[in-house]
C-alpha cells in the first residue's frame, strides 16, 4: 500500500512526462548575426570619434586662447614701447627747458646793492658791478615726467574734467555745400550724412602709462677726465682713489675676482686711465704732481689681461658705455654694485663735477676738491665733521631761491673754517674743478601697457635742439 506522498509525486512525474514538448529556439541567420556585430563596432567608432573630436576641439580652443594672448601681448608691447618713447621725448623736452633756464641771466643782488651805494663788488662800480649770474634751478628734479603729466597737457578721449565727469565729444558740423565729385542726385547727401555721424576726437588719447626718470651724469666722477693731464686729471684721480679707499668699501679689495686677481684702489685708477689712453705703456700715478700726475712707466699695460681666459687687449680708446668698465683690470660685480652710480663715461672730457648732487659721498668728494691741497685740513678725514658740513650745504641749498652756485658752495665751506683752493676762488666762473650746471643727462623711461613693460635708456648731451643722443639701450 503506497503512501499518499509518493502517490502525489508519481502523479506529478507522470504529468511531466505527458507534457507537450516546446519548440526549439529559432536559429539566427548569419546575416542577422553580422548585423548585430556591426552595431557594436559602430558604437565603438562613435565613442572614439567623439573622444577625438573633444580632444581636437579642446586643443583648438587652447591654441586660440594662446594665440589671442600672444596677439594681445604683442599689441601691449607696441603700446609699451611707444609709451616709453613718449617718456623719453618728454624728458628731452624738459631738458631743453632746463638749458634755457641755465642760460637765463640774473643780476647779482650784492653787486646791485654795491652799485647803489656807490661801491661795488671788490670795490668796483659802474658796469662791472652788474656782472650777471644765471639760474641754477634744476627743473628735471622738480618735474615728474609720467603719463599723468601728458594727460594734463592734452585732452584725451575718455578723460575727466575737474569735477570727475567725462568730457563729451562734439559732433562735426556738416557742410551742406560739400559734395563729392561724381555724385548723382541719389547720394548727393551721403558725404554730408557721413560727416554728421563722425565724432570729433581729441588729440592725445592713449592706453597705458609711462614714467621717465632723469639723472645728472655730471654729478658723478668722469673716468675720461683721467686723460686730460694736469690738475684736472690729478683732482679726478685723487677723488677716485679716496672713494675707492673709503672704509665702507674696504671689503671689496680683500677678495680675489673671477680671474683670481686681487687689485688695490690705486691700481684700479691706473687701469682705468690705461684702458682709454693712446699709448701701450702702463702708467704710474704721482699724487703730488699737479702738472703731470700720470707718467709712463716701463711695463706693458696689457700684461694683466694676458693672464685672463680668454685673453684680450687693452682698448686704448674712449669708453662706449659704462658696462665696458667690466673689462678693465680690477673691476668686477662687487665693484660695480658699489660704484656704478658714482662713475660715468658719457660727459665731455672737460666737464666739471656738479656740486648740486644729493649723494653724500659725491658731496664729500666735492668738498675735498674745493679744499686747498697745500693746506690740508685733518677734519676732512673725520666722517662726523663731513656729515655736519654736508648738512649745512643741503640747508643752504634749500634756502637759496635761485639754486646753489659754486660761489655759494665755497662760502659754506669757508664758513666751516676750511681753506679753499685759490685756483677755484680766484676764478670761480672759469675754474676747472667744480661746476654748478650740467649738459649730460641720462633718461630712463619705462612704458607699461597691460602686463608688458618696456624700458628705454638714453644719454642726452644738451645742444641747440632736443639734445644729442650719446647712448641708447632698449630692454
From TrEMBL:
InterPro entries according to UniProt: GspK, GspK_central_sf
Listed Gene3D superfamilies: EpsJ-like (1.10.40.60)
Top-level taxonomic group: Bacteria
Protein name, as recorded: General secretion pathway protein GspK
Coiled-coil spans in chain: none
Originating organism: Corallococcus exiguus
Single GO cellular component term: membrane
Single biological process term from Gene Ontology: protein secretion
Annotated Polar residues bias: 281-294
Amino acid at each position: 500500500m503506497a503512501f499518499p506522498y509518493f502517490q502525489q509525486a508519481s502523479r506529478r512525474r507522470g504529468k511531466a512526462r505527458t507534457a507537450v514538448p516546446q519548440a526549439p529556439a529559432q536559429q539566427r541567420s548569419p546575416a542577422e548575426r553580422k548585423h548585430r556585430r556591426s552595431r557594436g563596432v559602430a558604437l565603438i567608432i562613435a565613442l572614439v570619434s567623439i573622444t577625438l573630436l573633444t580632444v581636437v576641439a579642446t586643443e583648438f580652443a587652447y591654441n586660440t586662447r594662446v594665440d589671442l594672448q600672444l596677439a594681445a601681448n604683442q599689441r601691449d608691447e607696441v603700446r609699451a614701447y611707444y609709451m616709453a618713447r613718449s617718456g623719453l621725448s618728454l624728458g628731452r623736452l624738459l631738458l631743453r627747458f632746463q638749458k634755457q633756464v641755465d642760460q637765463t641771466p640774473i643780476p647779482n643782488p650784492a653787486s646791485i646793492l654795491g652799485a647803489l651805494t656807490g661801491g661795488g663788488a671788490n670795490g668796483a662800480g659802474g658796469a662791472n658791478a652788474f656782472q650777471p649770474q644765471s639760474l641754477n634751478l634744476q627743473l628735471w628734479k622738480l618735474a615728474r615726467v609720467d603719463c599723468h603729466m601728458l594727460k594734463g597737457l592734452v585732452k584725451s578721449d575718455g578723460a575727466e574734467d575737474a569735477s570727475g565727469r567725462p568730457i563729451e565729444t562734439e559732433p562735426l558740423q556738416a557742410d551742406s555745400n560739400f559734395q563729392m565729385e561724381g555724385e548723382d542726385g541719389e547720394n548727393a547727401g551721403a558725404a554730408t550724412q557721413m560727416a554728421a555721424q563722425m565724432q570729433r576726437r581729441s588729440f592725445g588719447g592713449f592706453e597705458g602709462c609711462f614714467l621717465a626718470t632723469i639723472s645728472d651724469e655730471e654729478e658723478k666722477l668722469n673716468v675720461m677726465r683721467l686723460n686730460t693731464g694736469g690738475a684736472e686729471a690729478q683732482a679726478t684721480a685723487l677723488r677716485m682713489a679716496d672713494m675707492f679707499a673709503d672704509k665702507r668699501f674696504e671689503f671689496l679689495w680683500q677678495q680675489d675676482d673671477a680671474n683670481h686677481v686681487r687689485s688695490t684702489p690705486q691700481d684700479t685708477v691706473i687701469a682705468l686711465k690705461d684702458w682709454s689712453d693712446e699709448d701701450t705703456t702702463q702708467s704710474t700715478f704721482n699724487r703730488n704732481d699737479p702738472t703731470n700726475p700720470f707718467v709712463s712707466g716701463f711695463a706693458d699695460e696689457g700684461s694683466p689681461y694676458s693672464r685672463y681666459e680668454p685673453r684680450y687687449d687693452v682698448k686704448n680708446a674712449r669708453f662706449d658705455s659704462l658696462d665696458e668698465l667690466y673689462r678693465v683690470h680690477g673691476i668686477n660685480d662687487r665693484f660695480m654694485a658699489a660704484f656704478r652710480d658714482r662713475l660715468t663715461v658719457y660727459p665731455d672730457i672737460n666737464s666739471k663735477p656738479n656740486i648740486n648732487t644729493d649723494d653724500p659721498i659725491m658731496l664729500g668728494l666735492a668738498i675735498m676738491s674745493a679744499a686747498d691741497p697745500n693746506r690740508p685740513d685733518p677734519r676732512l678725514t673725520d666722517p662726523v665733521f663731513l656729515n655736519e658740513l654736508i648738512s649745512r650745504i643741503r640747508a643752504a641749498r634749500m634756502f637759496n631761491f635761485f639754486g646753489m652756485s659754486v660761489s655759494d658752495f665755497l662760502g659754506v665751506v669757508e664758513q666751516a673754517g676750511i681753506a679753499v683752493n685759490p685756483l677755484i676762488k680766484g676764478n670761480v666762473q672759469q675754474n676747472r674743478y667744480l661746476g654748478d650746471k650740467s649738459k649730460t643727462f641720462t633718461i630712463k623711461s619705462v612704458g607699461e601697457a597691460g602686463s608688458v613693460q618696456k624700458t628705454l635708456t638714453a644719454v642726452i648731451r644738451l645742444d641747440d635742439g632736443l639734445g644729442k643722443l650719446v647712448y641708447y639701450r632698449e630692454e
